[in-house]
Here is the input.
Amino acid sequence: MAESIIKKPNNGMPANLADYQKCYTGFDWSHPSGPSLSGLPGGGVNICFEALDSHLDTPIADKLAIRWISKQDQVVDYSYRDLCEQTSRFASVLKDLGLEAGARVFSLAGRRPELYVAALGTLKAGCVFTPLFSAFGPEPIRSRMEIGEANILLTTRNLYRKKIKSWWHELPHLQAVLLIDGSTDDEPGCHDLPQLMQAADPQYPCVATRPEDMALLHFTSGTTGKPKGVVHVHQAVQYHKLSGYYALDLNESDIYWCTADPGWVTGTSYGIIAPLCLGVTMIIDEAEFEVERWYRLLQQQQVTVWYTAPTAIRMLMKAGAAIREQYDLSALRFIASVGEPLNPEAVSWGYSTFGIPFHDNWWQTETGGIMIANFASQTIKPGSMGQPLPGIQAAIVGRNECGQLDKLTSPMQIGELAIKPGWPSMFRNYLHQDEKYQHCFDGGWYLSGDLAMCDEDGYYWFIGRKDDLIKSSGHLIGPFEVESALMEHEAVAEVGVIGKPDPVVGEIVKAFIALKPNFEPSDELLRSLQGFARKRLGAAVAPKEIVFRNNLPKTRSGKIMRRLLKARELGLPEGDISTLESDEQ
Ligand code: ATP
Ligand code: MG
Here is the structure.
């Protein structure tokens, strides 16, 4: 296990969660500590009101809310007041189109300002927002819109022509398409959004939604199977705000960059809602990942808090420290990661490269917000996801001989990571899959489907997805442990590990490795990797087979798809690959 990192103070900033133990043990949902909601003036809760309208009579109103940077480096700024007006216009457009509260608005667009306005404007109108990732092909778009019974689609002209035009009239619920960049070729049902926005009401008030009204429908990443439609309600905003404050340490003085696309839950909970509720300035980059661009933006925009993902971090590591040294990143004070296990090597690399470590945190589309985190004020144990947030009761559970769930209380026992239901951003259903939803709850716990361990200090350690656990000669092996050890080898850029069925030992450990630039596959390198893994993990856990790949199959949100590595290895059907980023094998 890598050594713990006791950090320098947070660049002189006192952490929002200064005394973790005190806050955690004293936390009570009936009088929660931390920032509270404003609530709608006439009663009820609305996410858009918390993010925008509630700031109107405060000094935040004219502050920079969003700085948008286009692919060509054009910069467009929006104050909180601007966004408030724009979202009112969008809500009024929906009303004029005849949409009732609860109607479903889908978006299919890159990271453009209109997408952010539409997300919040939809919520302002009391409708339900579903973002789709713009790189999806027609089939994943159509199936998600069918499941979600989309009433409106917001998209661009280009995406419309390429992916939507030929079939959208077949969807029974879909009333209209709104084109962000105008011009409709006079097609029925297809509207020029800028024109409608111009004629719309800039003062349209927030609809009085109730706390349990549906607000967001998010599709999961599809890492383990067919993506599920996850239902969230307006009350979730209480937790978005609280967790942004405690886990991401956000303050009004921050310039914040969440690199996740709003097509995924991170890009909505922490790329739109939480930062705006907390009055920060956030930057949005329209362009895709590129090492130099990212460093340049961090420097140029003086980003203070940065929330990103392991895949991006591994790509920065692959590019080497010399590039990073060309930039002044001294404004950065807090950096965090989510979405996949963050290898200890990446945490330590962050510490040596940025002077501050990456703070890993864990959550899911279903939890709606961060459940377990490494906090600004707390010691980091590289490789651990951290500790539960105030208000969150986590446990490791397993089944006893009678098949009942028990809390596993001894440190470092492997079991399923479970959370006590009742936090505000907990999902309220899988759309049209009640039974699947009910199946997630047992013995008074929400069961996450992930395996983990808890140490004697209350830190949680990720083992793997339940489906990915490897059983070899009576040992239980988590792929993350093996992957993390291999990541420490100088030649390894990325690695995915699976269990391959074996008649003698049950399963053998097999690793798929993508190499860093300047390393070529060879027998010598293979032997070096095998020796390296055996030394670190022991012969029972080290991979028996290692193969090289140019790339590993990943979801579009950047997660390694181990189920696909396994299906391909065994010649089995690939299953749902709608979220697969095209991969070169
Ligand atoms: P699907 O449910 O469709 O298979 P998915 O689970 O990947 O897709 P998400 O809800 O986007 O969809 O991802 C949540 C999952 O991502 C978690 O259950 C966990 O397995 C993984 N994850 C997220 N953050 C971390 C982390 N910090 N460490 C380890 N795993 C993480
Ligand atoms: Mg999942």
